[in-house]
Amino acid sequence: MTSVTALPPASGRAPDSGRAWRTGRRIRVRVRLGTVVPLLIVVLLLVAAIAPGLLTTRSPNGIDIEHTLLAPSLSHPFGTDDAGRDLYTRVIYGARESLGIGLGATGLAMSIAILLGFAAGLAGGVVDAVIGRILEVSFAFPVLLLALLLIAIRGPSLTTEIVAVGIGSAPGYARMVRGQVLNVRQAPYIEAASALGHRRLAVIRRHLFPNAMRPLVAMITLGVGQSIVWASSLSFLGLGVAPPSPEWGALLDSGRMYITTSWWLEVMPGLVIVVVALSVTSLGRTLQHRLEGAAR
Amino acid sequence: MKTPRRIVVKVAGAVLVLIAAASVTFFAQLLVPGSRATVILNEQNGRAQQWTPAQLAPVNKEFGFSKPIIVQYLDYVGGLFRGNLGTSFTQYKPVTQVIGAELAPSLVLTVAALITAWVLTLVVTLLTVRRGRFITALGSGWEALTASLPAYWLGVVLLVVFAVEIRIFPVIGGTSPMGTVLPVLTLAIPLAGFLGQVTRDEFEKVLDQPFITTARTRGMSDTAVRLKHALRHSILPAITLSGWALGALVSGAVIVENVFGRPGIGQVLVNAVNTRDVPTVSGIVLVIAAVYVVANLLVDIAYSIVDPRLRAS
After folding, report:
1. CB < 8 Å to B25, chain A
2. pLDDT band at B224, cuts 50/70/90?
3. d(CA B177, CA B185)
4. How many contacts (CB atoms, under 8 Å) link A and B?
């Protein structure tokens, strides 16, 4: 790697806890608990988002005034809320919106970042300097605050929430994309392709773009986890998706009134957010290590 | 470049960044749906409707919206240098007065959290880096877990455990010392996880350096090697991040103050966002941006004075 590092600092990973064994003749399958568990959770998340009916038999809006604010039990694993709705079911049904916000915000952020990052990295000179200044200024605004400013201007809504988190996190990615482009640009194979007489556009499309984009796959994964957390923070503050929705942040917001009596309303949806964010992040890191390994 | 000149260039750069940030918040205010006067009248009357030009005129006049945009812009940026952040849409008084008294509790919270995070980082690093497989894994696992905890959830869990179930701390503690403990921990623990990850990587690298082996062969004890040699080198990257961390802490404080019902700019900010009081939101965002920029500037300057390698280049 050259001095331009485009990737965030790697976390202190636990020593290799993997087990290796032989199956069949020569195929070695390495099963790592640290990869399998997060993968399983992400699969469950996708199932919940696509077909929530598979994971629960109840309805997310099934009001039951005889069983309000019940503590977690076998029949209600996450307890029930102030209207007697099963919290587990609501969390499952909320997955679609939370994941949607996370994907939408990351998609928007990455689109802006790729546009700015490639423009700066390829054009260089004045364009790079101008984009560099813009990014420097936007770093003065923490993500959450930029998002709050946008919400104050446009008023809280689902769209504003996605746009706010997307725009808020774009500058960070843009800097990484730029670094990545500069990094790949100096690679010998780019020089070779140019020397062979390929046109500039063809070199960019066939060599530079795919190679610069590869590490970004991991970054997108990390971004989705991060976006879900930011978006739920906004809803938690009552500035995102409003409470009747089972979106995870909205669930936390509506449970706040009962914090002294019914802890599960806050703790359980929060736990799900933490577990999902941790899983997505750890998958992103695994991907990052794999891709870095492949690049060498 | 000589150090004094370097510092002047850096300060000038920071001022430019802040002016640009102020420009962003000013022009962002023009993006409100309808017009700013419409937002003010709607908020005042609790409606969402169109207003006739005759109804909008007095508001436009009062807030100076009828002046040309460029004049308003220059007034705004000029006002910043005199410590004027504009006028609140809902409270009809200067934003500086709205923020004023709320700044101190937030600052206390952030600084206390930064110090606590550092103490936690140092303790965990000194006790768990290269201490056998199990303890090392425990330390890095703790860091990975805490670094990704969202502030609101950690706050809620601490509140439930230490204020509701075990009644050590008050549920709503205001700015009292006892009421400050949980908010500080909520902010400090995730930050300590993050700083710890960075410090751990560096600490491990430093322990492999030849001068560490030299120190050991001189008969220096393991504890002394860690404290006197390894620590000094390994905290440098985390110190660089402290400027960034202060900015992150101030924005984290917004959430934490809301969880604990603690007075501060976070509460003012969320109320202002709710009531579409854009000048107050912009004002607070700018103050936090300024804290962030100044903190990074100080870290930068401290570095160029302390680190001889930077001075030479």
Report:
1. 149
2. confident
3. 13
4. 148
- Given the structure tokens 């009421």, which residue do they identify? B179
The answer as to whether A70 is a domain residue is no
Closest chain A residue by Cα to residue B172: A260
Residue A30, in any domain of the structure: no
Is A162 in contact with A105 (CB distance < 8 Å)?
yes
For the four alpha carbons of B134, B139, B140 and B146, in that order, the dihedral sign comes to positive
pLDDT interval class at A115 (50, 70, 90):
very high
**pLDDT, tens digit, for every residue of B11-29?**
888 888 889 988 988 888 8
Q: How many angstroms separate the CA of residue A237 from the nearest CA in chain B?
A: 7
Residue A19 tokens, joined? 């087990």
A33, A41, A144: best to mutate for the B interface, most B CBs within 10 A: A144
- pLDDT digit string (tens) for A144-199? 888 899 998 888 888 988 999 999 889 989 988 998 888 888 888 888 888 888 88
Q: Of A232, A251, A208, A233, which is closest to residue A87 (Cα–Cα)?
A: A251
Q: How far apart are CA B313 and CA B311, in angstroms?
A: 6
In three-state secondary structure terms, A25 is coil
Give the per-residue pLDDT at B2.
65
Indicate yes or no: CB of A266 within 8 angstroms of CB of B160. yes
Instruction: Give B162→chain A minimum CA distance, Å.
Output: 11
The number of domains in chain A is 1
* Cα B5 versus chain centre, distance: 28
Give the C-alpha separation, A260 to B164, whole Å: 6
For residue B57, give both structure tokens.
């005129």
Predicted model pTM: 0.82
Half-sphere exposure of B287 (CA within 13 A, CB side): 24
At CB < 8 A and 24+ separation, what contacts does B78-85 make? Answer: B80/B22, B80/B286, B85/B279, B85/B282, B85/B283, B85/B286, B85/B287
Identity of the residue in A15, A156, A263 whose CB atom sits nearest the CB atom of B160? A263
Distance of alpha carbon A116 from alpha carbon A173, whole angstroms: 10
Coil/strand/helix, residue B109: helix
Query: How far is B146 from A41, CA to CA, in rounded Å?
Result: 19
- B20 close to A (CB below 8 A): yes
> Beta strands of chain A (E only): which ranges?
19-23, 27-31
Residue A156, Cα to own-chain centre: how many angstroms? 21
Domain annotation covers residue A174: yes
Backbone dihedral angles phi then psi of residue B97, each to the nearest 5 degrees:
-70, -35
- Please report, for the domain that includes residue A222, its CATH number: 1.10.3720.10
Contact residues for B231 (Cβ-Cβ < 8 A; gap 6+): B122, B125, B126, B203
- Pick from A216, A208, A206: nearest CA to A183: A208
Residue A71 domain-assigned (yes or no): no
The pLDDT assigned to A31 comes to: 65
Q: What is the interface pTM, i.e. ipTM, of the complex?
A: 0.85
Residue A254's domain comprises 37-52+79-295
- Asked whether residue A96 carries a pLDDT value surpassing 80, the answer given is yes
